[in-house]
Amino acid sequence: MSLNSDIEKAVALLRQGDVVALPTETVYGLAADIHQPEALKKIFSVKSRPFFDPLIVHVSSESQAQTLSGNWTSLHHFLAENFWPGPLSLIAQKSDKVDPLITSGLDTVALRFPQHPVFQAVLQKLGSSLAAPSANRFGKTSPTQASHVEKEFNGRVFVVDGGASEIGIESTVVYPQKTQNGFLLEILRPGGITEEKLKSILQNFPSPVQIQRQEKQNSPGHLKHHYQPDKPLYILEEPVSSVEKTLASLGLSPDQAAEMKLADEPTLAARQLYEQMRELAESSAQALYVVKKPGQHGELWEAIWDRLRKAASNG
Ligand code: TXA
Ligand code: MG
Predict the structure, then answer these.
(1) Would you tell me which of 57, 162, 224, 235 could form a disulfide with 23, CB atoms 3.0–4.6 Å apart?
(2) What angle, 0 to 180 degrees and rounded to 10, lies between the N-to-C axes of helices 266-282 and 301-311?
């Protein structure tokens, strides 16, 4: 089937209240129409996702986001103008159009305008918004290719193949809020848009913005363990002798453990991260390990190590 007929089929299934997997520039998402509660429930059952973990709503324009939000501030507008479409999810007060299933009963909703042309085409043809978490079983490694989703759900979910996700890790989640003397921007999940990038763009915002990392408290989905491959992953420290010693202490000889070798360049390391995790977990190795190198700070490294720590058994 051609890509266009796959897009048509996805739209038809979504209209019927089904879930489908769609490519985004970050990771593949498991999408459902936000106006169909039965479809939303399917997301949770297919993923075995607990209802306390809220979903991101994907929109096809800033104005669509505004209709779902009760309080779209000038900081929301500024960030949307600078980063949408793209890997930034904005938390906003929700309007009563947003089903509590999506927000797990919170009074806020996460909104994102994705960049991927296939996802945009589906949104446009459907004429609605789509709730879409990453298309993996709850707590497991996110998919960056159509084949990952096929395997994840044993072919039970229709997948539109839009190629490998370019960014490879999930969107940055931020919560813009008006304060007495300016604005506060809480970063709830590091991701494709880095803190440096946010800071540099915010220099052009007319009011002062205080940026705060606030990962644990406000983001119900930020459990300690997440993104986990099907075999245990360990984070080890250099030098090599200490790597071998640690493996031995875990009862593993070097040939029983497969090393995840991260690319030197962070955008490449991010793009390959989940694919590597999946491939090595499918190999004959009993466990996976990754060696933390000095200098992997700033830029996307923070987001990459956030995922690795949560995926690791010793994170
Ligand atoms: O890149 C992405 O964001 C991908 C693609 C498919 O768009 N989606 C994704 O969804 O990563 P998911 O469900 O795996 O992660 C959504 C995160 C969770 O950590 C959740 O807790 C947080 O967003 N979240 C959603 N709504 C929230 C809210 N109202 N307040 C705080 N955190 C929220
Ligand atoms: Mg996820």
Answers:
(1) 162
(2) 20
Amino acid at 215: E
For ligand 2, the distance from its centroid to the CA atom of residue 142, given in whole angstroms, is: 6
Question: Is 266 in contact with 301 (CB distance < 8 Å)?
Answer: yes
Of residues 175, 30, 58, 178, the one with CA closest to residue 108: 175
* The pLDDT value given to residue 294: 86
Which of these, 174, 188, 140, 173, lies nearest to 30 by C-alpha position?
140
* Contact indicator for 149, 135 with CB cutoff of 8 Å: yes
Ligand 1 mean position to 55 CA, how many Å?
Answer: 5
pLDDT band per the 50, 70, 90 thresholds, residue 263: very high
Distance CA 242, CA 20 (A): 45
**Token representation of residue 149:** 């989703």
User: What residue's CA is closest to ligand 1, atom 17?
Assistant: 221
C-alpha radius of gyration, the chain, whole number: 20
Residues 6+ apart with CB under 8 A from 222: 188, 189, 215, 216
Quick check: CB of 43 below 6 Å from ligand 1?
A: no
d(C-alpha 178, C-alpha 68), whole Å: 18
Helix (H, G, I), strand (E, B), or coil: what is residue 281?
Answer: helix
Q: H or E segment at 20?
A: strand 20-22
Residue located nearest, by CA, to atom 21 of ligand 1 = 221
Report the alpha-carbon distance of residue 93 to residue 107 in Å, rounded.
Answer: 6
Q: What tens digit of pLDDT does each residue of 65-122 get?
A: 999 998 999 999 999 999 999 999 999 999 999 999 999 999 999 999 999 999 999 9
Residue nearest to atom 24 of ligand 1 (CA): 54
- Please enumerate in sequence order all residues whose Cβ is within 8 A of that of 209, keeping only pairs 6 or more positions apart, or say none: 75, 182, 183, 184, 185, 202
**pLDDT above 80: residue 219:** no
For residues 132 and 32, the answer to whether their CB atoms sit within 8 Å is yes
